[in-house]
From TrEMBL, chains A, B:
PROSITE patterns: GNAT (PS51186)
Enzyme Commission number(s) of this protein: 2.3.-.-
UniProt-recorded Gene Ontology molecular function terms: acyltransferase activity
Species of origin: Lederbergia graminis
Enzyme type, top EC level: transferase
Domain N-acetyltransferase: 6-154
This protein's name: GNAT family N-acetyltransferase
Pfam families: Acetyltransf_1 (PF00583)
Length: 154, 154
């Protein structure tokens, strides 16, 4: 695999099936997602919401015709930090067959550059404490685990 | 102070000066914010972005004419969790004169109800590890510190 041939682009509706497959092919994702045919309508609605929102981008990493990675980047204007914009990264996954080849790093570095191009002052994400290896991965990329990430599920 | 008289509403541009004051009157906020007259243009631009975005709400708690609390709630459509919507809470502050009177709890409970009304499946936030008392505050409200909150500042 030649990583120079990876292409990063916004996802289209035709990519959605593969994206949901990638999200579900994961130790935590397989409990949360529902990958089946036809895809549950909720995924299609979410894709449409993201696609029509200029501050929300679903990005795929492609190797030839194959989607080998995905991430979602959301840009938000906050009042804090003197009215600064932040990018939030969510749902980062790489295909199990190509894990450990640096595609995850390239996805995050792509997101960091995109955030800079959009004038953000910060990139942020949360990572489940059940994934200690992910924490190390993000720290190597320059992130600081300065915050607790709190969730309240309904 | 009779908490039953608190009113929660979306902020207007006339409230912005007081909001920036509240954000800056804080042990971490006083390093990040710039409260001066006239207010830096970046705050006004951020207010306009938030105000024109149906998925971004700046909420104030009012006691009579006085703004005694503020928070920002952002609603985001993600592909993860079967295309679920989440609410993210940011920039929660109460006026120093009324701290410890339960206004912070009422702000968060208001946000939780708002998130339910909007069809979210989760409310999330990050809290700086330099605020251990805040972690306890959110845990009492039902949040779980299941994630690490990672930030990369440019």
């Amino acid at each position: 695999m030649n990583k120079n041939q990876l292409i990063f682009r916004e996802a289209t509706i035709e990519d959605l099936d593969r994206i949901v497959y990638l999200l579900s092919d994961d130790v935590l994702g397989n409990k949360r997602e529902q990958y089946k045919q036809p895809l549950p309508e909720s995924y299609i609605k979410a894709f449409q919401s993201i696609n029509s929102d200029p501050n929300n981008e679903l990005i795929v990493a492609c190797y030839g015709e194959e989607i080998v990675g995905v991430q979602q980047i959301t840009f938000t204007s906050f009042i804090t930090y003197q009215g600064g914009w932040r990018a939030t990264i969510e749902g980062v996954r790489t295909a199990s067959l190509v894990r450990g080849k640096g595609i995850g790093s390239m996805l995050i570095q792509w997101a960091i550059q995109r955030a800079k191009d959009r004038g953000c002052h910060m990139v942020q994400l949360t990572t489940d404490k059940k994934r200690p290896e992910a924490l190390h991965f993000y720290e190597k990329l320059g992130f600081k685990a300065s915050h607790e990430g709190l969730k309240l599920h309904f």
